[in-house]
Each structure stands twice: as structure tokens, then as C-alpha cells.
Design brief:
It is built from seven helices and five strands, in the order H-E-E-H-E-E-E-H-H-H-H-H. By secondary structure, it is α+β, with helices and mostly antiparallel strands. The protein has a three-stranded antiparallel sheet with strand order 3-4-5. A two-stranded antiparallel sheet has the order 1-2. The protein is elongated, with a radius of gyration of 23 Å.
């Protein structure tokens, strides 16, 4: 809390006072500053570097950079055209406007690093070996965690979570075949799995996106 209060004084108030037209976001010691031109960006960078040194801090030499937000309207080349912030990667992505036409926007989606961390968490659950639990028990256990991921990372470009959520389904399928020997036959397993989805389509939180991605069946 003290560090955050200090950054409010050293960073936030400084930018508001010296560059009132420049917008920014900051979380702890991680920040994104929005500039209109490269010249303005370099001016703000130099001023911030000087400001940080005056209060005994230093901008991170590797993480501090100027990023060109390349999209359909900004088509020039630049050294850096993406950045990560709060678990999201911001970069050029295909999007669709209100008229249904595709365009290239500079948009956020869950970062590879965040996906890797969540994937490791899912693997550590070893769902396929939890045969002592019921299907309801598994849902009660993992739903709060998965729902948190979906609510946070699913706000933008949620299709980027598809592979992670599919992996959870794969573990659940393996769990069913280990728990119930009669389901080792693909035909019987398919009938059982489809039956569960029909009877309890909201049992697992990630199944609520099933119709969008068509991957539960």
C-alpha cells in the first residue's frame, strides 16, 4: 500500500501535472501511457526517466518501450507492435465491426504466459485421477476457479481461451472412462457424455460457452 501511494505521488500526479492531455493506466509498478505521436512518446519517456531518478527509482531498461499500435488505420512499420499488461497481450487482431465487415484492430486477448500458467494449474489438478469424486464434486471444486478465468480473460477475444477450456473437457472425459469401466466403449461413452450435457448443460461453468465454440460434444 505504501509503495502504491508513493507511485501515485511520483508517477500519477507527475503525469497529470506535466502532461495533462496524456492518458495512462497504472497497476502497482506496471503502467501504460498513451501518446499520439512517437515524438510525444519519447518526450514523455525522457521526462518520466528523469522524474523516477529524482525520487530514487529507475524505469525498467527492458520492459520500458515505445509500442506502435498497428491496425487498419496505422500501417507503418515499427520495432515493437505489441505489449503485455495485466495478463493480456495487446496486438493487431482480426475483428468484425457492427456491419459485419472484418478489419484489423489493436486488441487485447489473454497472453501466452497467462495461458501457460492456467494450463499448468489445470494439469496439477490431475482430474482424470480423481475417481473418488463424483461429477458434481469435480464441478464444485473447479467451477469457482474456471469461472474466475472466464470472467476476467473472457472479456476480450474470448476465443483465445478455447484450447484451455477444451483441455479441461479432455481431462473430464478421461476421468469418466477411468471411473466407469462400462464407458471404455466409445459408443457407450459418447451416449453418456451427450446425456450429461443434455441433462445438466450448466454443470461446469465452461460449458456455458459450448454453443459458441461447438466443442463439448
Amino acid at each position: 500500500m505504501l509503495a502504491n501511494l508513493f507511485m501515485h505521488y511520483a508517477f500519477d500526479l507527475f503525469l497529470v501535472r506535466e502532461f495533462p492531455t496524456v492518458e495512462f493506466e497504472r497497476y502497482a509498478d506496471d503502467a501504460v501511457v498513451h501518446c499520439v505521436t512517437e515524438r510525444q512518446a519519447r518526450t514523455v519517456w525522457a521526462a518520466l526517466a528523469e522524474r523516477m531518478e529524482s525520487v530514487g527509482l529507475r524505469l525498467h531498461p527492458d520492459k520500458t518501450r515505445i509500442v506502435y499500435c498497428k491496425d487498419s488505420k496505422r500501417r507503418n512499420s515499427f520495432e515493437h507492435t505489441s505489449f503485455r499488461f495485466l495478463g493480456y497481450t495487446f496486438r493487431s487482431r482480426k475483428a468484425r465491426n457492427a456491419d459485419g465487415r472484418f478489419y484489423t484492430g489493436f486488441l487485447p486477448a489473454v497472453s501466452r504466459e497467462a495461458l501457460k500458467e492456467m494450463g499448468q494449474r489445470v494439469r496439477s489438478w490431475r482430474l482424470h485421477l480423481r475417481t473418488g469424486l463424483s461429477l458434481d464434486g469435480l464441478a464444485e471444486w473447479i467451477n469457482p476457479i474456471v469461472a474466475g478465468w472466464m470472467n476476467y480473460f473472457g472479456r476480450f477475444y474470448r476465443s483465445a481461451l478455447h484450447q484451455l477450456l477444451q483441455r479441461i473437457n479432455t481431462y473430464l472425459m478421461r476421468w469418466a472412462r477411468k471411473k466407469y469401466r462400462r464407458l471404455r466403449s466409445f459408443k457407450r461413452f459418447k451416449a453418456w457424455w451427450t446425456g450429461v450435457l443434455d441433462r445438466e448443460p450448466g454443470l461446469f461453468k465452461h460449458w456455458t460457452w459450448a454453443r459458441e465454440f461447438e466443442w463439448t460434444r
